[in-house]
Amino acid sequence: MAVITCIDDLKRLHKRRTPKMFYDYAESGSYTEQTFRENTTDFQKIRLRQKVAVDMEGRSTATKMIGRDVAMPVALAPVGLTGMQRADGEIKAARAAEKAGIPFTLSTMSICSIEDVAAHTTDPFWFQLYVMKDEDFVDATLERAKKAGCSALVLTLDLQILGQRHKDLKNGLTAPPKLTLPVLLDLATKWQWGFEMLQTKRRFFGNIVGHAKGVSDASSLGSWTAEQFDPKLDWSKIARIRDQWGGKLILKGILDEDDARLARDFGADAMIVSNHGGRQLDGALSAIRMLPKIREAVGPEMEIFMDSGIRSGQDVLKALALGANSTFIGRAFIHGLGAMGEQGVATALEIIRKELDITMALCGEKNVHDLGRHNVLLPTGFLDEYA
Ligand SMILES: Cc1cc2nc3c(=O)[nH]c(=O)nc-3n(C[C@H](O)[C@H](O)[C@H](O)COP(=O)(O)O)c2cc1C
């Protein structure tokens, strides 16, 4: 591919260069994938208002996320098994984020460990926690994140039980992959991936293997989740974790107005309006459709981030116009990583930054803080089609 101009170009390369098992893991939703699809198609329904003859010089995409200066209102979302999309993937993505001046969030289910990412970066990153039944493991993990200098905890609330993703079962997803005949045949055409993977020792769940007690098989996400994730997670347990952590706390996976009010009243520093990229409750509404209702429910002061479906700077602008302070991206950066490693993540971020900047100019805006409802046109009934 000669010139890369959009996230879709990176997605095509990602598909070509990464084992099918891991590409499919990223590019899928749960069950019928309705919510996964609507996360992106709902963005396309939102239209932008063109404004002309407005001075567009001196534009800025810079803002703050929970008090931290960021070059644009975008952070890298926690993505499990990032180090299987490309060898040392978490370190590569974290470095690209650092260079772009935006936060990186490390998943509990990462391949590179907390300490490893800290050793290879200079900016403090954010750590995402899945709450496990084993409280000692949770406490030890929080201590490790604190010691590594992580500056915020992203607590994921929407995956205490795994929504089924058919492709992962059909492909026999594990990390590292089991070398069956179909996998070997697939790897034959993905030689660069295999070559890089042979050069690294980071091929297992780095935060878990050697840290969690009595883990029988940490290679399969499905069985591990079923065994270890705490189905009893509720607000009292969230309070325990908040106290244990003692630092900035972002609650991830809010998709309902009542839950949003609870998160606000709980005193979280921010919340992420998200349906986990359509990977959990299939049939839930898209995050962008729920965002304006949630903003209305919690009022103007609460810091709201949004993810699920963002594939362009235009999408970032739409999210900000509908009430988000900032956004997270998952697949958009994973496509970059799978396509071209660290350079691919940098390319994805630069594509999104430029799209946001130019689209802001064409909307007659100079500053991300000025974006609002006046920049978008919504189809009739978009906000109250479902009641
Ligand atoms: C392959 C993949 C793995 C993910 N793993 C995690 C995870 O470990 N922890 C978490 O909180 N969210 C995880 N997510 C959800 C993302 O953080 C984010 O909510 C989602 O990707 C946003 O949707 P988008 O991919 O359309 O941008 C994952 C998403 C993908 C695509």
TrEMBL record:
It is an enzyme of class 1 (oxidoreductase). It comes from the Bacteria. The keyword Oxidoreductase applies. One of its GO terms (molecular function) is oxidoreductase activity. Its EC number is 1.-.-.-. Its cofactor is FMN. Pfam families: FMN_dh (PF01070). Gene3D superfamilies: Aldolase class I (3.20.20.70). CDD domains: alpha_hydroxyacid_oxid_FMN (cd02809). Keywords: Flavoprotein, FMN, Oxidoreductase. The keyword Acyltransferase does not apply. NCBIfam families: PRK11197.1. This is Alpha-hydroxy acid oxidase.
